[in-house]
Amino acid sequence: QVQVMESGGGAVQAGGSLRLSCKASGADFDGLALGWFRQAPGKERAAIGCVSRFGAVRNYGDSDLGRLTISRDNAKTTLYLQMNSLQSEDTAMYYCAVTTSGACSDAAAWYKYWGQGTQVTVSS
Fold it and tell me: H-type helices in the chain, by residue range?
């Protein structure tokens, strides 16, 4: 059983930055693929990106290129999401998702383990 816990969310003004963290435990971290999803009020959960077991990053949100950066630190068993130049439309609950397959997908059903989410609120 993989335990997943996000942290780092909060309230920030437009133009600001946040770094979200996702700690995963209970499995060989090096073999995991980990992704970030977000769900805004009234919208479906959407994939932001993923890092495979080999460190390959997949970005799934074209509009976020350059503002959102995903990375992993295997030594710290942690996945990160660096968010810069935040906009009001970035307001959402952010979720970390984990699969033991080691491969990435933009489909939520691909990931078996999920955190509880961390809220990001951007005010203009």
Answer: none
Strand partners, 50: 35, 58
Strand 18-25, strand 118-123: pairing? unpaired
In eight-state DSSP terms, residue 31 is G
Distances (CA, A) of 113 to 66, 85, 89, 119: 27, 29, 26, 18
Tell me the β-bridge partners of 24.
4
> pLDDT digit string (tens) for 73-115?
999 999 999 999 999 999 999 999 999 999 999 999 999 999 9
Residue 73's DSSP bridge partners are 78
